[in-house]
Amino acid sequence: MDLSSVSHQLRSTYARAGCAVAVGALLGVFAAPAVQAAIVVTDTGAGSALTCTLAQAISLANLANNPGNATPAGATTVDPLSWSAAMAVGSGSCTGAAAGANIIRLPAGATISLSTSSPDNFWYGPNALPPIASTITIEGHGAALRIAFVPASRLRFFFVGADPLSSATPGYNTPGPGNLTLRNLTLDGGVQRGGSSRRGGGGAGLGGAIFNQGTLTLSGVTLTNNLAVGGSSGVGTATGGGGMAQDGSSAGGGMGGPVSRGSSDAGQDGTLTTGVGGAGGGMASGLGGRGSYNNGGTGGAGGNGGGGGGGSGPSSAFYNAGGGGGFGGGNGGQGERAGATDLTGGSFSNGGVTGTGGGGGVGAGGASSGSSLAAGGGGFGGGGGNAFIGGQGGFGGGGGAGAESAGGFGGGNGFQHQGAFGGGGAGMGGAIFNHGGSLSLVNCTLSGNSAIGGASGFGGTPGLEGSGGSALGGAVFNLNGNVNVYFSTLAGNGVTAGTGTLGAGAQAGGAIYSLAYNAVAAAGSSSAALVLHNSILANSTGGVDLVVDQPAAVSGGLVNAAVVTTSALGANLVMSALAQNGAAALPAFPLGSDPSLTPLADNGGPTQTMAPLSGSVVIDAGQASCEIPLPSTDQRGYQRVAGAAADIGAYESDAVEVDSVFVDGFEAVAGCP
């Protein structure tokens, strides 16, 4: 079948479905890989001048596309590649990179172990590998990336950078426009954990394995044992809100952005003057907590890693306003002037105003209040601070203890007393958090991944706890992005809400949670689009398999201008699904019973899969047409159509291995031109 005709057919299908999907990326998965130079990884340990590790290979590919380490067009990120620790190590013996798209080849069947003690960067939390800031394909050849579980650890595998010139992510700070394709690879054991606090709200845990703001295509990939965990309150002694991936302090938790320029350390809390806590990425309107710029009419850009001021004003200045956060940075400014009446916390301003409790920037928790009046709200992913008037959580962040202590979307509410506990942070996207990006899953298996909400008053005094954080998207959480799931199996993933005296959080979307959430349609992505093709969403624990959500309002009570859409092409098996709030009714799914899958195992091919038992309803249940061509093989590289029709999901029963995996990319459909 000619690929140009396939492209026309797919584009026609997507246009009628009203979906914005990266068709070119999808076609590229099935096309035979072009013969070109590649960066060949030869070492699986630590990098040095004599090695070529995966981290060094990614860094070399990024540098080939930005040799001057320049600020990406449309962003304000200064020296973006220097925020990766791999830059300091150097490219070692790696060769073969060129401007444009690059291929990285891993040793066949290798296991690459990544340590929680040595993250490469801190874009939206600690990441094991350099940020994807260019177009990169990683050919896994059956290799596995693994992170050994360590209690309270935080480390995901990949962050894929946004394109600041894209209409979906305008002005986002970024290491560079990222476009990542993974083939025949396993990602096992990633954990992203929100920061905890004693009385402030917990931070959000977003994307256990991958945080994507660019273009992400997975083909023949298995993701398993990855976790996104919300931060808890009742932990430690801090009263500021927990950050996206750093515990709180009196000044609020930092993180969320890159490492401080010139070092590989995490972003730090703000100080009473200027800080170095980093926060990256521009946000859609309504994603910040009370006191952030996003409480207003338009989304603001994130910063260069610069933090705001410390957030504690003189104790005599009881009526001071909450200080402004640094530009895209950490916490509020020092209070200097009595009599101010603005209690809204921080903002994406260029420094503190006057303050008793600063609001967090992107990824940062709000500061507590030195004068006990008003705490700062959390930025995107940050918990609110603790005070008489508790700070509101940002998106996914718990509210700080005190009056008016609401959590952000998915975050728990704080108990309405200053001496009580804040709300738990949300866990979202156990395997993948897609934030305004484009995500395609082709012949993939996602199983055993979990989202877990943070608890309120963890181990604290009963009766003074707020509400727990929500657990949403056990495998995938989609926020204002495009997700295409094509002949894939998402089964056996889970969601577990956090607990608290005021109630537990929600737990939903064990396989996929798709959310449209933006107060201003012109400022960033205004839609969340999901397309399912001949795929399985099943056997989730703790909640329904699929949730699509379109709330009436976003943080601050602003009207939600974003729209969520869901399309189903071919035949899909979805055991349970829910369209809630203003979301349109879901399309019909022809199958809804148990698919009768075996546990994840080696069934041949480069990655583990879940085989249907004999008699499973998914066998020969796939639907093909001229508009929906079939891939030539299943996830294992075995012939896709072995019976009367293709099987639904990533595995084809009774199939034989194909010697040349992607001959033309698609199976021709009888009767089609």
TrEMBL record:
<feature type="region of interest" description="Disordered">
    <location>
        <begin position="330"/>
        <end position="354"/>
    </location>
</feature>
<dbReference type="InterPro" id="IPR059226">
    <property type="entry name" value="Choice_anch_Q_dom"/>
</dbReference>
<feature type="compositionally biased region" description="Low complexity">
    <location>
        <begin position="260"/>
        <end position="274"/>
    </location>
</feature>
<feature type="compositionally biased region" description="Gly residues">
    <location>
        <begin position="239"/>
        <end position="259"/>
    </location>
</feature>
<feature type="region of interest" description="Disordered">
    <location>
        <begin position="239"/>
        <end position="278"/>
    </location>
</feature>
<dbReference type="InterPro" id="IPR011050">
    <property type="entry name" value="Pectin_lyase_fold/virulence"/>
</dbReference>
<protein>
    <submittedName>
        <fullName>Uncharacterized protein</fullName>
    </submittedName>
</protein>
